[in-house]
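Lab channel / #folding
Pinned by the channel admin:
"Please post every new chain as: sequence first, then the structure tokens as a reply. Keep commentary short and put observations after the output so the thread stays searchable."

First post following the new format, from NK:
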Amino acid sequence: MVRRIGSPIRLRAGSTGCGDFELGGPDGNLPTEMRPKSRRPIRTMSILVFQEGEWLCARWLEHDLAVQAKTLSSLYVRLHRMIVGHIAVRFAHGQRPFEDLPPAPRKYREMFDRSKITLPSEMFRFSVKSRALKIPPPTVRVAA
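Reply from TO:
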């Protein structure tokens, strides 16, 4: 299933319910008015998973984005949906994704650095098909 959000952004539902998405036309390029003036790639994606009460939480440390869910699979779905939604809305409004988002508070980075428990990055891999934006495989750690 493909849904259109504005003309240059297509979301495709995949087997996980999150799917992948494509930005731009068939060649992967964005329209001129939506192209970033300077391409600032996302170099790292550090995800901290922790529990608050009955909820599992995932926080992207380089850009202070967080979601909650009751199960690990739901957490992945919500994190993916939030990131895809952020990108889609920003591009639809001619803005660069993640550009003005601050990093997560220091305490979450410290929790991430102390953690020795990792989750396979394949669980949280985000499929983005665009020359304008590349998201690297995440490093996912569970807070002890």
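NK: The chain has a mean pLDDT of 77.
TO: also worth noting, The first helix runs from residue 72 to 92.
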